[in-house]
Amino acid sequence: MPTSPKSKFLSVRLTPSDHRAFFKKAERYGKPSDLLREIVDAFLDDRLILKPPSNPKESLYVNRK
Q1: Angle at CA 12, nearest 5°, toward 10 and 17?
Q2: Alpha-carbon Rg of the chain, whole angstroms?
Q3: Which of 26, 34, 49, 56 has fewest C-beta within 10 Å?
Q4: What is the pTM of this model?
C-alpha cells in the first residue's frame, strides 16, 4: 500500500463553541479535515481572500503591501 504524500499535521486551538460551529458548518462540504486542507490550498494558490472583521481581535489583518 503506497504511503500518502500528506505527512505533516496542522494544529489549531479553538473555543469549544467555535469547534462545534465549524464541524457543523463543514458537514455541508465533507469531512472537516478535507475542508481545512482546501482552505490551506486556496490560501497558497491566492484563491482565498481574508477580509478584516469590523472589530479585529488580532494583528493578523495588517497591510502587507
Answers
A1: 140
A2: 15
A3: 49
A4: 0.70
pLDDT by residue for the chain (65 residues), tens only, comes to 555 687 899 999 999 999 999 999 999 999 999 999 999 999 999 999 888 777 767 666 666 55
Residue in this structure with the C-alpha cell 465549524, named with its chain if needed: 22
Burial 43-63 (b: 16+ CB within 10 A, else e): eeeeeeeeeeeeeeeeeeeee
Q: Please answer whether residues 36 and 27 qualify as being in contact, where contact means their C-beta atoms are separated by less than 8 angstroms.
A: no
Alpha-carbon dihedral sign for residues 30, 49, 9, 62: negative
| Contact call for residues 14 and 23 (beta carbons, < 8 A) | no
> Could you tell me the three cell numbers for 38?
482546501
